[in-house]
Specification:
This is Pentapeptide repeat-containing protein. The chain is low in regular secondary structure. Helices cover 14% and strands 6% of the residues. It has two helices and four strands; from the N terminus they run ααββββ. Strand 3 and strand 4 form a beta hairpin.
Length: 173
């Protein structure tokens, strides 16, 4: 009987998603650097991330403090920000090369001058996002809502449009 319960508990624990390592959060607080680390589900509210290097980090489900989050000049290349709430966040001049922003909330966020080369924004809500001077090359915008977005001087090439809502409200396939 005990072996059966032990097996059930072991299986349940292995089915849980990997959560942030406390030492990774502490390292980020101390150094503003956490390359390729697991910060999924972490509470990062109140941590100074201006200019931080989070390249390759897993931030899926992390609590980032939407609305007052300042990620200006932050390196987020190849980071996993799927499902992240970045509404109203300042990501100006951040590096988002190859970043996974699937299902992210970017409503009203400032992405001025960002590189979204190879980024995946499938299903993201980018209503009113500011993409002035941004670079979108090989960017996946499938089912992305960009209504009201600002695209002044943005460089856009080889973008994947499938059911993408454009700034004027029209849909492009």
């Amino acid at each position: 009987m005990m072996k059966g319960w032990l097996m059930v508990v072991t299986l349940a624990l292995t089915a849980l998603p990997a959560l942030a390592q406390p030492e990774a959060v502490q390292r980020l607080k101390n150094t503003r650097e956490c390359v390729n680390c697991n910060l999924s589900g972490a509470d990062l509210r109140g941590i100074n991330l201006i200019g931080a290097n989070l390249s390759g980090a897993n931030l899926s489900g992390a609590r980032l403090g939407a609305g007052d989050m300042d990620l200006n000049r932050t390196a987020l290349s190849r980071a996993n920000l799927s499902g992240a709430n970045l509404s109203g966040a300042d990501l100006s001049n951040a590096s988002l090369y190859g970043t996974n922003l699937t299902g992210a909330n970017l409503t009203g966020a400032n992405l001025t001058g960002v590189s979204l080369v190879g980024a995946n924004l499938t299903g993201a809500n980018g209503q009113g996002v500011n993409l002035t001077g941004a670079v979108l090359v090989n960017t996946n915008l499938t089912n992305t809502n960009l209504s009201g977005a600002i695209l002044n001087q943005a460089f856009i090439a080889e973008v994947i449009y499938k059911s993408t809502r454009l700034p004027d409200g029209s849909v492009r396939n």
